[in-house]
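Reading a protein record of the kind used here takes little practice once its layout is understood. An example of such a record is reproduced below.
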Amino acid sequence: MADCIINTTNSVNTLIGLVNQITAQMGSSLIPMMTTTINSKRQVQPLAEPTPGTHPSLKYFGIGIKGFYNVNTDILSQSYVPSEEDMDLYQPIPFRMVPLENDLTPEERAKYRMRTVETVANIEYATYWLKMIDFPDTNVDITRVDLTTNEEDEYTFDPANLSPVPDRNNGVDQIANASSRVIVSTDGACAVTGAEVEEAIRILYGNDKRYARISEWGFYTGEDRICNALDANGVSFDYTEAIYVQLATKRCGTGSDMSDPASIAREKIVYESANTYLL
């Protein structure tokens, strides 16, 4: 089984993400689909194609507030079920919205991507829609899971398997008789603060705290590139932007209340190569 982003409840790997994944694994040439990118939607470097000979990699995440709906007039709510055909969140919100004349410093800007200039109530705001995923510097984790007890231990490779001995299954499904499972995985941390959410809610939704419930998470592939933009005085500056950004995985839930600026929401995206069973 190919590596994929592990599915959780109301989480889906998109068709675009699977196309990029398989293309990269095959080592075949990427045929750009420019109209499927977030860059096209936001008009941020919409014509910038990936560097020839490379493939987009998972780098960024975004958040939204329309991952669920109310099922009655009481307290019950239900998550939407995302579709493999979705190419963005249902109602994304930016991480940062600051007056253009008080744009982020280069140091602050380093962890954000997809910069646009949005005008609200005749005020121009530098707006950042994506944030970098924090992947660990360490190697991937290789874990053996006992299928009876669910206990985990570290799996180590045996050099003897360079000369493997074939095994006969005698017509019996070996998966059913497996005693353990090996998982090769790594995870990336995606953290959102209430202070980040508060900016968008205050500017876009009149500071109505009821909107400050993060219920959508999007995980995007793309490529970093040095690009050019204009500041409030029309002076150009260079910054790192994400190009050829596409939604790889989408997750919906009933939401985390982020109305307190001191609150923090953390989501992990886990890559897992599974279905490897040991008898």
User: Anything to note?
Assistant: The CA atoms of residues 109 and 164 lie 51 Å apart.
